[in-house]
Amino acid sequence: MNDSFHLSREYSDNALLQQLVGPHNAHLARLEQRLDVALHAHGNTITIEGARGQVDRAAAALDRLYRRLTGGNAVTLGDIDSAARFAAEGDAQDNDGQDLTIRTRKRHISPRSPMQSSYLRALNDFELVFALGPAGTGKTYIAVAKAVAMKLAGTVDRIVLSRPAVEAGERLGFLPGDMREKVDPYLRPLYDALHEMMPGEQVTKLMLSGEIEVAPLAFMRGRTLSNAFIILDEAQNTTTMQMKMALTRMGENSRMVVTGDLSQIDLPRGTTSGLQDALETLHGVEGVGRITFTARDVVRHDLVTRIVEAYDRRDAARNHDEQR
After folding, report:
1. Residue 248: partners with Cβ closer than 8 Å, 6 or more residues away
2. pTM
3. Which of 193, 229, 234, 243 has the fewest other C-beta atoms within 10 Å?
4. What topology does CATH give the domain 96-323?
């Protein structure tokens, strides 16, 4: 590299260093791709070569990953991407010393982007949190993880997961099958997230006892949910009245997370999204947190990020043309 800068990092534990480097140097290759540097491992030392800023970011990412290993955690390609993301956004520290890890029976979930760190802090600090942004940013996944962790710790007595079944107009009687068969297709992402956090038999047991409830939003009317962690998913597809109804279900010692993507509204044309209305109405209200993810926070396949960005550019161009 022309006008390149060199920096070396020495790591004392050979076994951990092997995990850091990855099989056939796969982890180093991934970090090279992410941060546009060259990495070379020699003995206990990793040498970094590249532009000064990128070298510093790569060093911060390597140090972050090594700390993860010394804490007894494995390093995956997803963790490499996470470390690169934190470093690239100038947030290489471990959340100011806070342990933001969510611990469930099957998984330990740590933030994979600075915005996810902000999200986890908001879940700790606020009784009601709005999480906005595109698919793949962890909005629902992290909320379910937090709900499960609080249930396991005894902080709440039950978990209530809900979505508006807008694709069926919530006229579930017109769909074939019994009630469970009618609503399951719309609630499947919530079931999937639960099974990521808990053994299947435990999920089944808690659902049978009513300690975990997964139901369409229409089933929430007229109830008060105390000592509960409530998640309203895909909230961009609520009407203003549905959103008000959902928000006022909160009872004593309850937490609520409302997730949605305002670019994916499936309501009939001319219908105001309850999510957009709630954000405007509750702006500045004490006890309400708001986290907004963008395409750069997507933690799925790289192509998902590029797809989201392409649609964002298309929508921006259309809006510009309509305003002319």
Report:
1. none
2. 0.75
3. 193
4. Rossmann fold (3.40.50)
